[in-house]
Amino acid sequence: MQNFTVDELKQFDGKDGHKAYVAVDGTVYDLTNVEAWRGGNHHGLTAGRDLTEMIKKSPHGKKTLTDKPVVGQLVS
């Protein structure tokens, strides 16, 4: 698994052929093949960021991430 800084994670925004990664609670998930995240956007959220607070406040919370590929950890 790879360690990502916040700046490195920004490269994975799901746009222009980039993969769509998001961090939640320090874990980085690959959402590239999730239809709802096509183009790196989902209900006003953008890939390539730490979305911990937004995901925790969402109706589904973290449970939709349980079957998504983990690609690394967010480090400071």
Automatic annotation (TrEMBL):
Gene3D superfamilies: Cytochrome b5-like heme/steroid binding domain. Residues 57-76 are annotated as: Disordered. InterPro entries: Cyt_B5-like_heme/steroid-bd (IPR001199), Cyt_B5-like_heme/steroid_sf (IPR036400). SUPFAM superfamilies: Cytochrome b5-like heme/steroid binding domain. Residues 4-75 form the Cytochrome b5 heme-binding domain. Pfam families: Cyt-b5 (PF00173). This is Cytochrome b5 heme-binding domain-containing protein. It comes from Furfurilactobacillus rossiae DSM 15814.
